[in-house]
Design goal:
The chain has about 425 residues and is α/β, with parallel strands linked by helices. It has helices at about 80-90, 95-110, 125-130, 150-165, 165-175, 190-195, 210-220, 220-230, 270, 290-295, 305-310, 330-340, 345-350, 355-360, 390-395, and strands at about 5-15, 20-30, 30-35, 45, 50-55, 55-60, 115-120, 135-145, 175-180, 200-205, 260, 285-290, 315, 375-380, 400-405, 410. The structure holds zinc ion.
Amino acid sequence: MRGRVRSLGARWVFPVEGPPLPDALVLIADGRIAEIRGGARRSADIDLGNSAVLPGFVNAHTHLELSPIPGEPWSEENEIAWLARVIAQRRGSSVEGLRAAVARNLASAISAGTTLVADTTTAGLSWNLVAEAPIRALVFCEMIGLRRQRGIETVHEAFAWLSTIRPEMQVVACARPGLSPHAPYSTAGWIYDRAATAGVPLSTHLAEMPEELQLLRCHNGPMRQFLEDLGAWDDAWEPLSPRPADYVRKGDLRRSDWIIAHGTYLEPDDFWQLRPASAPNGQRVAVAFCPRTHARFGHARHPYREILASGGIVCLGTDSLASAPSLGILDEVRALHRSDPSLSGPLLLTMATLFGAWALRAESVTGSLKPGKSADLAIVGLPDRHADDPHALILDSDFPVIATMFEGQFVAGLGAGR
Ligand SMILES: [Zn+2]
């Protein structure tokens, strides 16, 4: 019923922009947050009990069309061997099979409290399903190819897809299109330049592994062998630059918004250029760090601390089920907390929500709990104990997301759809 104010009460409310509030009430009207009151839980229409209300999580990097690839999650698997298995999975799947995976994985992401997702997809394949789902989204059409002919095909495919998406569809669907040149090792530099002419947000896998750096610097190594074996290598290929960061900052490339997936091997000199203050025209560049995928391949320590300390934005992604055990950002937050307990609770929650919303230009509607923003919420069960810092109740437990609210409606858990 439009206009009706509904209120949710919970043991803790974490607005993210502001300190956690005990026994708090979130008032919702017309799908938006009307007010948040600490200490007023008793008057709630729905008392969520021993739980926490947080902004819906933002997954800044995933591939919903991919399915699990068996392997020991923490075994430091050879990443190139893993890539070969991902390619085999995608080539061995029908379009219907990939769409079925998108539908399954979307439902799983929403159940995990995700209310904004950045999905990278082959030829725009996930768009219709994502656009119809109760979630905000950026859908990046993947572009891939080193060889000239393959490059022409991927550019044609991507621009043809973009031309099918009308602006009014984006408003209704809460979804926007973007392009994703896959990675410097797999995608010719001119394709990056073409992507940047589209005037849409961009995403790329960058500075992901040492083999990528070796290929860009010396044109050889295991990555070249891998590309030759695939039939994807081009003898005439020249990188745009030996430095991965140049793929998002050289010339007109710096005029677009970029989500950098991974960025593990960015160099210290690159960090300050990631600061919002360094952007020439307000462009946004953010690193989407995927902690469990990072751990799976046994990479060097990720420089998230240094990037943040330089004023850059680091948000979180799950990457796909091919490398991570779930599509839950809360699972990523807890894994990161376990591996680096020195990261503060408020910073971790900000990386999981508001920083991702900023990176996807959605921070005016979502990413924190503030009057006027959409009621996009994740509700997390809490353990029955006291903690001096309430963040510990979320970070040091394994209680799951029990419900997800999108625009004031429960879309998973607590009687969703009724
Ligand atoms: Zn990825």
